[in-house]
Design brief:
globular, 188 residues, 6-stranded mixed beta sheet, alpha/beta, Pyruvate-ferredoxin Oxidoreductase, domain 3
């Protein structure tokens, strides 16, 4: 990978935006790559839009700032509006297919737009708590920014203490990554 991959991830406070960004950064580090993660939640936390900026590369990352992302992930309607300014002609724009009322806000200039039914799948097949992990699995599969194996290792590292108390959580999170990957398998 010659240049750093620039990622913007946004959603409502409490949707796990920062956790997913940390997990992807950890997975990149585990692959021996550079990762720079900058959270942006200010006073918003729960009830506001939380944004994470992430860069992953094979060499030192020179600047934390960027205008256009390679991957934009929006988990809510407000996140779609807030992140569309980071979309350019090479951007993969990923959002939850169940978000209503944003049709006009979905960027037309993106290289690829992926509408993932993550919330629906979480509610009907797994658990609403892993909605964000389903999206992460889809992004990892669609963009190959990190490997699925390293993403699982990073989840283990971040949530292992919870998994020790409740081993079913490990299975649930790993199923969520796999299910997210399945959702985009035919699209990439």
């Amino acid at each position: 990978m010659a240049k750093a991959v620039k990622i913007v991830l946004a959603g409502e406070g409490g949707q796990g935006v920062q956790s997913v960004a940390e997990i992807i950064a950890e997975a990149a580090n585990e692959e021996g790559r550079e990762a720079l993660y900058i959270p942006n939640f200010g006073v918003e936390q729960r009830g506001g839009v939380s944004v994470a900026y992430l860069q992953i590369g094979d060499q030192a990352i020179g600047s934390p700032k960027f205008l256009t992302a390679d991957i934009v992930i929006a988990l809510s309607d407000r996140a779609v509006y807030r992140t569309r300014k980071y979309v350019g002609p090479e951007t993969v724009f990923v959002y939850d297919a169940g978000i209503e009322g944003v049709e006009d806000a979905i960027p037309k200039n993106a290289r690829k737009v992926l509408a993932i039914p993550a919330l629906q799948v979480a509610n009907e097949e797994l658990n609403p708590r892993v909605f964000n992990v389903i999206i992460m699995g889809a992004v990892v599969k669609a963009t190959r920014v990190v490997s699925e194996e390293r993403a699982k290792d990073a989840i283990e590292k971040k949530l292992g203490y919870k998994f020790e108390k409740n081993p079913e959580l490990r299975d649930l999170n790993f199923k969520a990554i796999d299910r997210g990957a399945e959702l985009v398998a035919g699209l990439v």
